[in-house]
Amino acid sequence: MNLKSRPFMRTLPAKPLTIGLIAASVITLTALGLFVGRSHAADAAKPGATAKPALTVSLIQAKDSILGIKLSANGSVAAWQEASIGAEANGLRVAELHANIGDSVKRGQLLASFAAESVQADVALARAAVAEAQANAAEAAANADRARAVQGSGAISAQQVNQYLTQEQTGKARVASAQAQLDAQLLRLKNTQLLAPDSGVISARMATVGSVVGAGTEMFKLIRQNRLEWRGEVTSAELSRITPGTAVLVTAPSGAQVQGKVRTLAPTVDAATRTGLVYVDLPGAAPSVGASFKPGMYARGEFELGSSGALTVPQTAVVVRDGFSYVSRVGADNRVSQLKVQTGRVVGDQIEIKTGIKLEDKLVASGGGFLSDGDLVKVVDAAKPLTATPKSATAQVRPASAASK
Fold first, then answer.
1. Are 164 and 62 spatial neighbours (Cβ–Cβ below 8 Å)?
2. pTM for the complete prediction?
3. Distance separating alpha carbons of residues 244 and 114, to the nearest angstrom
4. What pLDDT digit, counting tens, does each position of 303-336 carry?
5. Which residues of 209-233 are buried (b: 16+ CB within 10 A; e: fewer)?
6. Where would I find the beta strands (DSSP E) of 27-163?
7. Backbone dihedral angles phi then psi of residue 238, each to the nearest 5 degrees
């Protein structure tokens, strides 16, 4: 009884393991069958499948255009000439100021008045000295006339005659000296009124009422004739391309623009920066309160150096990646290839392409940033002409067919 029961007891624990192995095998075979079935289904679907386009695009071609040649530079706005107005009278007190910073004045306009009491007293003293000298000169002239009348009669000696004649000349000289002193005092009196030497705008005022100033003390600064100029800094290599009379478009930091003209070029180049100054008159920029251009501000200018031909495309056709510019060319199979290009001038919505494309290349008009090499695209409006250049652009666009001829 015990011997027969032993085998039965040994085989009993092995049944659950066998069942687990069978179940795992069934699951594995089922999964393998599903995978193989899907693979066959996918393989079966490939030959009959159609690739979908990545993007719907319209095509454009480069245009042969005429673009302006411009040279950009930076520089400072300054007064054409700034006059320094100082006191000519010495030791006088400022009585009243008639002009302030920002005032527009005309030539000869009164700017400041000095206390003139002491000068008027000196003028009166000088007038009295002139009168005294004239009286003495008149007496000396009468004595000289009498001496001439009896000169040959022997009534008086020749020595006395010469003495009377000398006194006459001395009297005339003293009158001239006294008159000169009077003129000097009248000039001092005139200088008690400080007048504008030229028309312009007062840019600075250093004088204060009640101060006693010495001769030559600066009291005002004046921007002569309301004229401003822009002093552009141009490299020595580009300086030779600019000539007097060249048109310049100067842009202020506020965005305001004024058309200027080159007046002259500096005869020397800075040895430290290797740049030369170009002096540009700004006739449309008046130095007034609220004006866009003021002396001392930094501004940017563009010299107009003529025009030249160029290939242009819309700016939307150019994509910038990793610091480089690309365009998307579409082949006959509607596949995209990325072309690296070198861009140049920008006029309106058009941009110059220096290298990288040909006139006959068909390019993606917009959306090139969503495409990669080899992408399939759907082309629509392929015959639609390129967007016209805005009227405000300086470029003159010629048809591509005319350029190819």
1. no
2. 0.62
3. 45
4. 998 888 889 999 999 999 988 999 999 998 999 9
5. eeeebeeeeebbbbbbebbbbbbbb
6. 55-57, 59-60, 63-79, 82-86, 92-97, 104-105, 110-114
7. -95, -10
